[in-house]
Amino acid sequence: SNKGLKDYYQSYFPVGAAVTPRTVEEGPEAELLRKQFNSLTAENVMKPQPIHPTEGTYNWEPADKIVAFAQANGMKMRGHTLCWHNQTPDWFFKDKDGKEVSKEVLLQRLKEHITTVVGRYKGKIYAWDVVNEAVPDAPGNIYRESNWYKIIGEEYIARAFEYAHAADPNALLFYNDYNTESTSKRDRIYTLLKGLLDKGVPVHGVGLQGHWSLTDPTAEALEESITKFASLGLQVHITELDMSVYPKEHARRERRDTDVSTFTPEQEQQQIDQYQRIFGVLRKHKDKITSVTFWNLSDRSSWLDNFPVRGRKDYPLLFDQNYQPKKAYWKVVEF
Ligand code: XIL
C-alpha cells in the first residue's frame, strides 16, 4: 500500500516521529519518514545541552538540518525542549567561580536561552515543549527539586512560558511530562496547569509523553487524563509514544544477568492489543488530541534499548528492525 500512518490519520491528527540528524539523511529511514509521518521532533539536538553547550555558544547545525528536512517535506515541526532538569549544562547554574548563581541571573539566562532558540525557529516550529517534567513522580509535592526550582522557585515555569510567547506569539506552548496517567501525578500536573492558566500564563497544551507498556495505561486511565487536561481548555499532544515490552521501571539501572531481551509471541500479542486499545482511545478523543508523535522510528534503534536497563534491547515501535510494519501497525491503521 502507498498509504502511511499520516494518510490513515489524516482526519484525526498529524503523526510524528523523534529523529536525529542522521535519521533525515537520504536512506531507508528518511524514506520511511516521508511515507509514514507528517510531523517531526528532534530527539536530542534542541535540548539545552546540545544546542547551548556553553554560555554564548549555540550549536545550530544539527537542529537546522532537521528543520530543513521537515520544511522540504511539508512536515510539521515540534520543538523539544526549552527548560528541563536533564541534558542541561551546569554553566546555567554556576558563576565563573563555580558558585551557584542568583535567582536574577538564572532567570536572565533562561530568558536569553528561550528568546534565542524560539526566535531562531519562529514560524518554523509551530509547537514547543516549553517546560519538561517539572512534576515529580512521588506523591506530595507539585514541584520537582531541580536546579531551576531550587534557585528560582516555582516562578521559573511561568517565566519560561512568557519568554517563549514573547519570542514567537504564534507558537503553541506545551507543558510536557511522563507518567501522566498515574492518579497522583495527573492531579498534581492538573493543579500546576490550572494555576498557570488562572494567572494568565500563555500555556496552550499539555504533552503526554506516552512512554507506555503492555499493561499501562489502561484505556480508562488514558481517557481520564485526556478529558481532565482538555477540560482546562488545553490541547493534548501525545509527544513521545512508545510501548516497552518489559514491565515499567522508572529508575535507570545497570544490567543484571536476569535481564534478557525477549519479544515472545505473547509479548507481541499483548503489544498488538495495547496499541489497538490506545489508538482507539486517541481516535475517540480526536477533538482533544491534536498531534501524536512516536519516540523514534523503528525497533532497529530506540532509546529504550538502554533505558532504564543499560544494554537491554526493546521492541517498542510500529516498525521492526528492517523498517517493516509490525502486526501492531496494521491494527493501528484498520478502523
Ligand atoms: C531521551 C533520548 O531519547 C535519549 O537519546 C537521551 O539519551 C535521553 O533523552 N523524556 C523526554 C525525552 O522528554 O527528551 C527523553 O529523550 C526521553 C524521556
UniProtKB/TrEMBL annotation:
Active site: E240 (nucleophile)
Recorded superkingdom: Bacteria
Pfam families named in the record: Glyco_hydro_10
One of the protein's GO biological processes: xylan catabolic process
GO molecular function: endo-1,4-beta-xylanase activity
Keyword annotations from UniProtKB, A to Z: Carbohydrate metabolism, Glycosidase, Hydrolase, Polysaccharide degradation, Signal, Xylan degradation
Catalytic activity reported: Endohydrolysis of (1->4)-beta-D-xylosidic linkages in xylans
Residue span(s) of domain GH10: 1-335
InterPro entries linked: GH, GH10, GH10_AS, GH10_dom
Family designation: Belongs to the glycosyl hydrolase 10 (cellulase F) family.
Name the record gives this protein: Beta-xylanase
